[in-house]
Amino acid sequence: MVSFSDLLPEIKKRPTLYLSRYSIFDFQSFYYGYELARNQLNLSKTEPDREFEEFLSWLRSRYNLQTTQSWASLILFHSVDERDALDRLFDLWEKFQSRNKSQSSIEDNFNHNSHKVEV
Q1: Which helix (H) or strand (E) holds 98?
Q2: Share of the chain above pLDDT 70, in %
Q3: Global pTM?
Q4: N or C: which end of the chain has fewer CB within 10 A?
Q5: How far apart are the C-alpha atoms of 29 and 19, rounded to whole Å?
């Protein structure tokens, strides 16, 4: 089964192939369905799946709100409508991805340089 984070670019390209409406809430329902299917098939979470969960936590911290509202509702609150909220989610995912790649690159450079021995 493909990871959810691998599905994101495909959903972004052709959202109505996966979602009944171009809506943040239809996306949220699709995600919950994906999670339910993985659980029912007893599939363990992959690293990309955990990364998407980390993204959802990052969203909450980014908006700095302590609320019981869903992540989809938080994005909608900062958007014009459900369609704009879905576009915003894709943009935020890309920011999250680039942020993670930058951190990984910094850590790789640090680890590479820390192994050098000065003579």
Answers
A1: helix 82-114
A2: 83
A3: 0.79
A4: C
A5: 9
